[in-house]
């Protein structure tokens, strides 16, 4: 067997010679026998030949049964394919480039989809990890968790290996390492790192009951502590207190999360111990700072864990109706939760590139058809020389596969180049960006689509080659039907993509046209983190804000003196920045709510001058003034949405409300609504409190500076002013309001840009395809046109006839495309804003655009037809 | 059997090891290829012919039964 393979592949010449000899001897013997039977020498040879049935066919049949024959034929076909591609370099270049673009775009988008949606999470047991949320019919489906509730879940459940909680709010100012730095902190329970299976780069995680210990992120360790291994056990100064470093996280540790988790914090620099080793105080059932995680015990199904959580939620509802009325628990696998908001968008992008690839395939199929037509003689000759139909088909498919593989190799090179560029342009809040890389799965995907495309466009000329006959001549009408079908397909897919692009672009435009409720131009914002001494003696409801107010006053005076500054104010939560907070209140004179039911709205401390600086209009009453401080009567300002919701038929100005046990506050004004959560999200009820009168302490004032000059140019002056007031106050998150607005629509902008790019690519490729097919059809009919003109048709009539043919194809394509759009529109409606999936203007506009491009692509061949010379046609015959 | 099918069959059987071939001189004094059955070929032939007999027996009795 092996010897036979060896002979087939390596001793080819010898094997072939032996076959020749064998057959020649046979022929001679049969001839001799025929002569013995009394035939003439000539007749004997002829009969022997006839009996053998064609020397070459017999040889071909013998070759086919040899061991390794298929391998050999394959190699032969590949060599032949490469040779014929080299003989026709412009065809090869066009086909390979078209494919490279199509496959490269597909592989690139798949790389993103793979990293974000498909790769397992970067933890040892990703499938067992869950996020747990409180849920409430009116407050929301995914609520962060009260510490006391978390404690009970953990104590009462048995389905989980571990349950851990994360508090994303702690902020730290790091001192003693040069300039003061503000670090994002997270407090986690001791089980948090073991739950994710994190192995520390240095040291260890937390023990349940230790205090004043920290774990550093790798980058914090590198940046501020020179990556010194001796850091473990050393003390660092955070918020003017000593903490002992117990561990350093590994370099590649990331906390996979959704953009909106953790109050828009995407990274944590220092980690402290949340404790929760013993039951928390009762009031910790009313505050909800925690994000909860759990890992299922091996073998426990999710449904069982969910049933158990439902039972626990039921217990807690009965035991603590004040806080837990109507509250449930939801468990969502971490891998689902993190990507829940981006799945549709990414899959839409993938579908879009697949359509681009299909359009490219149709073009190549058309090119191959033209080539096949030109090669009909060659094929007929090969068939005559003994090639079976199967063999011819195999050869054509090999040629397509070689094209596809070359195209995908170039496409892969494009991908390797484009992925890093793309990652830089992805919206920063896309989860798992660090997991996006070309890996084995991506390579497998590329190979798969390369083979699939090779087969798709390789089969088309095969369908057509069924008509190959020994004396084939001219073009069968079947062929032009096939070409027309390909064009119709291309036009309809291009239409779907263009409609998608149109809808996304209109959504983005609609988003950007939403008035945010304030004036965005000429505003600079920056955040300050005040060290804990500013909040001395803080107790809920009895906070003293004098130090903070003094800082704000002094900084305000300095900044107002900077040339170009018009006005300024401070707030704790900027609109469109991804952070928010909410507070419950009572309205004077209303019947008390039943237990567990609260009136609550979004809430921000602001200073006098804030409304003027950011440009929120005062609709009624007055803005805050400097005198609204802790020594004066408590006041509050509400927005129009809150006024509408809570005082639908009265004027709220002069009415009173209060938080918890504090004194009544008087509503002194109504301001305009702002789109706080996003341009696409309706304004929510909001209330504003003077900074000097807030019941808690806010130590992270954000300054809003309105300027007459380019706002970013004020940054260094602002920095100097802060250093002059207190050199220990770090300033960060410096951005113009325009940047914040633009950043808030970055996902929509990326989507619209990507789909538009693909749609233009599709339009371009499809119009080239249409042009090619019309040119071909015209060239086939040149004679006919010449004769028509000779017998009296005007050139205009010929032009019209060809244009009509092109227009007919385009019209069918557009119609089918519109039908597909109608079917698919629903799927992307969640990605749209301010425009319906079947937006008439978009559909009509795109159809007209496509029709115009189609006519243009047919016009050049049509003109050629109109200028056919009748004399040429006559001579040709 | 037509020669067109004979040669592929011969080559296939040779590769399977049922036939051995030698180059010799034919009656016309020309180098020719001669095939002979190998031992595996012989046993294969036996089992194949037994199989054939079984099938033809079955066919025959089936035909008689109708």
Textual characterization of the structure:
The complex is a heterodimer of chains A (877) and B (66). With 877 residues, chain A is α+β, with helices and mostly antiparallel strands. Chain A contains 27 helices and 23 strands. In chain A, the strands form three sheets. Chain A has a six-stranded mixed β-barrel with strand order 4-5-10-7-9-8. A six-stranded mixed barrel of chain A has the order 15-16-21-18-20-19. In chain A, strands 14-22-13-23 form a four-stranded antiparallel beta sheet. In chain A, α6 runs antiparallel to α13 (343-374). Mean pLDDT of chain A is 86; it is low at 468-475. The longest helix of chain B is centred in the C-terminal third of the chain and has 27 residues, at 39-65. The two termini of chain B are 32 Å apart. Chain B is elongated. Chain B has a two-stranded antiparallel sheet with strand order 1-2. In chain B, a hairpin with a 5-residue loop joins β1 (19-25) and β2. Chain B has helices at residues 3-15, 39-65, and strands spanning 19-25, 31-37. Helix content of chain B is 61%, strand content 21%. At the A-B interface, α2 and α4 of A face α1 and β2 of B.
